[in-house]
Design a protein that fits this description.
The protein has helices spanning about 20-25, 35-45, 65, 95-110, 115-120, 130-135, 150-170, 190-200, 220, 240-245, 270-285, 300-315; strands at about 1-5, 50, 70-75, 80, 120-130, 140, 175, 205-210, 230, 255, 290. The radius of gyration is 19 Å and the shape is globular. Helix 11 (about 270-285) links the parallel strand 10 (about 255) and strand 11 (about 290). It has one domain: Alpha-Beta Barrel (TIM Barrel). An eight-stranded parallel beta sheet has the order 1-11-10-9-8-7-5-2. The chain has a three-stranded mixed beta sheet with strand order 3-4-6, with no helix packed on it. It is about 40% helix and about 15% strand. The protein is an alpha/beta fold.
Length: about 325
């Protein structure tokens, strides 16, 4: 089974340390987030994760995109939609994805991986989904609150461009984060249309990550035009019962959240293995990717690394 992460990792920006870094900072070339990306990617690789991310170290999942999308601003720590939404002029995450790919490539070249093991490795591109972007922002101008659906579709076309950037930059998978879909406050038909605008013509596998208890929406999101549906199964036991109730998964693979990222405590290898085995019994190992429930930003680095390491070890102890 492929192991991966949902996105964020507990890594902080770093001020210039060496003389060379200070000189780079003086002329405006030092990137305080590159050390954090290096740390996040290196930790994921050391833990044994197959599909890593850049750690989403530049801010939270909404602000990263709100800062770059025309029509949006951040005022008083609040993301606002003030004008018509347009695609960003440049990619939001492609440079960091390429930086993470170089770290992964250099690490693989130094380690004694087989060609089969190398083929499983890659970097996942992350996009905060259009429904979540709109529902997490305040309307202040062009759109009225009654026109959320219009804003979501415009946001989808804007984020479609980002998906193309990430694909061109070598993403192995592109994941759309849509936690709002499970809340009951959104129009799932509009959310589906928006996701399909983004996924259309993208050639790498597309994943949809939906947090929370998905009982009311799981049957619907299984019909979205994506390849992988990723949900929480460690922290939300009811989602296991929802899996058991399905007669068809419509050809989808399941991203099987196996670590409770709301808890600092580290699950044992045996505990994670037992949960994964439950999933295997329901849908088969060939239909699963193993990852944490959600992003790991709120954990300490020690806890996040230990959880990932135990998760990979649990997968490796399963029958091949």
């Amino acid at each position: 089974m492929i192991t991966t992460v949902v996105g964020s990792y507990p890594a902080n920006s770093q001020s210039p340390q060496s003389i060379g870094e200070r000189l780079s900072g003086f002329i405006g070339l030092y990137d305080e987030y590159k050390p954090a990306i290096t740390l996040a990617v290196s930790d994921q690789i050391k833990a044994g994760v197959d599909l890593v991310t850049d750690g989403q170290v530049r801010g939270d999942m909404i602000e990263i995109f709100a800062r770059a999308i025309p029509g949006m601003v951040i005022e008083d720590n609040t993301c606002k939609i003030k004008n018509k939404i347009y695609p960003p002029l440049n990619s939001i995450g492609a440079d960091d994805l390429k930086f993470a790919r170089n770290i992964l490539k250099n690490t693989l070249n130094k380690m004694n991986f087989t060609e089969e093991e190398k083929a499983k490795k890659g970097v996942k591109g992350i996009i905060t989904g259009p429904t979540t972007m709109v529902y997490s922002s305040r309307f202040d101008g062009f759109y009225s609150s009654e026109k959320k659906d219009k804003a979501i579709i415009d946001m989808a076309y804007a984020l479609k461009k980002e998906a193309e950037y990430l694909e061109d930059s070598g993403a192995s998978i592109i994941q759309l984060d849509e936690p709002f879909i499970s809340t009951g406050v959104v129009d799932v038909k509009t959310a589906r249309k928006a996701v399909e605008i983004i996924s259309k013509d993208i050639k790498v596998p597309m994943a949809l990550h939906v947090c929370g208890d998905v009982e009311d929406v799981f049957g619907q999101i299984l019909k979205f035009k994506v390849d992988i549906i990723d949900c929480e199964f460690a922290g939300i036991n009811n989602n296991i019962h929802i899996l058991e109730a399905q007669s068809s998964f419509h050809g989808k693979k399941i991203g099987f959240g196996s670590l409770d990222t709301k808890k600092e405590s580290v699950e044992s290898v045996e505990e994670i293995k037992n949960l994964i085995t439950t999933g295997v019994d329901i849908i088969g190992s060939e239909n699963m990717l193993i990852d944490p429930d959600c992003g790991m930003r709120m954990l300490t680095r020690k806890s996040a690394f230990s959880k990932l390491k135990n998760m990979v070890e649990a997968v490796n102890t399963l029958p091949k």
